[in-house]
What does this fold into?
Amino acid sequence: MHPGNERSETDRSGNEGREGWSRRAYLGVAAAAGASALAGCSGQGATVSAARRPPKVPERRLDEGGWERTDDATEDPAFEQSVGPVTLTAATRTLLYEDAALRTKIADKTLGRADAQLATFFATRATFDPDITSLPAGAGRQRLLDRVEAQSRRTFRSRLKQAGLADVTQTGEETMQVASGAEARLTNFEAAYAFDGFSVGLGDEEITIEGGEITVAGHLAAWIGNDSVLVTGGAYPDENFAREVTKTPSEAISLTVDVDLGLKPKTYRDELFDLMKRVR
It folds into this structure.
């Protein structure tokens, strides 16, 4: 998925590598699904309202993990829903983050060829007017959760595709207990990211690293948190990228480029789920 740890003289490579990695911003776009996950449920336009409450996220863990906020987006109104005699108006507030520490690490390993969002996290709060807690017997609350979750799934898939991912597939549904004790409905996704090859210059010779596909994992969780619906999730590279290419221009010369980013999907997954569970 990304070049790294070149064995020798990769700083003399040309622009071909940069072009090959130009589509690496896919995860940034994918994460933006949270910002508009609830938009489009009605024909109404959106206006910005700073008064809408953002979701609470584990700021300390984000800071310690090298995450940086990339956006704070509001949809107001996001949609209207009739629940019996009551018409509810929904507004959303979404915080988006990227793992800037990982981004810097990969950029350093690739000599700047891969400088894009590699792991992302988002959290959305949907609030309602009148208050969701005013609905009788909780029946309306479940309908709202169903609608928010269904639209969030569709938008998440759409954003992954718009970002250049292929074969976006919903792989399963589970439940997940969050830190507040609530039970969230968890949807898992898988996609394939196709990337171009690039060339590395070694003196007068060039070694070509072939392109390929890397699996990307995505997760989205939704639950009712007191007076609102919470949606959170993100995406990350789900496998490492490693290549070794050797070129022998003569019997006496053998040139090798060793590419290994050392990506750790399980670590990224565990970190993402820890962040998701602490949203409230």
User: Anything to note?
Assistant: The longest helix spans residues 139-162. The chain has one domain: 23-188+211-240+264-277.
